[in-house]
Structures are given as structure tokens and as C-alpha cells.
Model the fold of this input.
Amino acid sequence: GAVVSQHPSRVICKSGTSVKIECRSLDFQATTMFWYRQFPKQSLMLMATSNEGSKATYEQGVEKDKFLINHASLTLSTLTVTSAHPEDSSFYICSARDMGGVQETQYFGPGTRLLVL
Amino acid sequence: QKEVEQNSGPLSVPEGAIASLNCTYSDRGSQSFFWYRQYSGKSPELIMSIYSNGDKEDGRFTAQLNKASQYVSLLIRDSQPSDSATYLCAVIYGGSQGNLIFGKGTKLSVKP
Done:
């Protein structure tokens, strides 16, 4: 299957700092990528839909000024957690929409584990 | 409200048995259906995708889709302890941006 990478895989930061997470589709172009957050033993929660060349669409309750999303190319979307606080500690996962085949498919990155101290 | 329903389990099967995972969805406009496997602490991994009525087989996995009944299932033959994970059913609804609507997942435990 197609490969989606995320970087970093794990990050620890101090409260108040900003953290950038990168999501790349390695062997296909993704006009649409999605950002999720997952707390322990809970379901994936969609945070936002990232569209190449346009503004992201945020789900209800997700602060767009806190979670900045940039999708500057067909293979890269970034999520920046600004002024991170301990309650932002979570597992952040991206997925990329592959429209290049006969039918569309979505692949997930390996996730980024964020710990805010 | 577009919904995807799964039995949360846990579903426990002995090694070598067939595990049957079921999923129903609410919107007849659905076009694409996926099964993802998620191990604890890891991100979801695509197991199967299915788009038309009938069966689709890939190794030990068979996905079944019945659009009239709004039902999709996953069969795992010769279950192995390594299959123990949470299985997520996901649907893309027609007219959407392609965002997946997930069920809550079924936890499968394969006992040696």
C-alpha cells in the first residue's frame, strides 16, 4: 500500500511552546489530508481537513488559531500546535487521500505522540 | 446524522477459527468502505477496501458488502494471535470531502 510518513514520531515540549508536525505522502499526491487526535483508549477524533492550496476545514470545537494547518504542496501538510499546554498531550495522526487509483483510498501516517510538560 | 455502527466487543475467538466482524452504516449514498486494523498505541493500518456489492478476498481476509442492507463485514480466516487488535470500519459518504466516518471499533482477541 501507499506510504504516509509523519515527523517527528515523538516530541516532548514545555508548556507554552509551539510544535510542528509534518505529514507526507511518499508515493502519491494527496490534494486532501486529514488530521486526527486520539486520547488513550478513545476513538480517533477528526480535527480538520487539509486541502492543498486552500484553507483547512476545522471540525466543531477545534480551535483553528491553536491548531494551524498548512497544505502547501500535494505531498505535505503540517499541523502546528501553538502555545501547547499539557491538555494538548495526545497522539496526533494524519491520513492522506489517494485519488490516483481506480477508486479512492486513505492511508494513515504512523502518528506523532506529543507530551507537553 | 451519518453513522457507522460496530459491535464494540470484545470478540474472542480461538486460534485457527474464523473471526467475523460486522458493520452497518446509515447513509445509502455511501461509496467507499474500508476496514482498518489498529494495534494499541499505533495508528490505523488499511486492511481492506471494498466499493461494490459482493465479496473481496485478500489472503486470509474477506470483505463483504451489501449496499441494499447497508452492511459490510470482514472475515478473518485461520485467526492468529497477531490478529488481536481493534478493527475499525470506515465509510466515505457520497458528496463528502472524502473524510472517513468511523465506527467505534471492534476489539478482537485471538486466544492461542
Summary: Chain A is about 0% helix and 55% strand. The two ends of chain A are 36 Å apart (CA to CA). The longest strand of chain A covers residues 90-98.
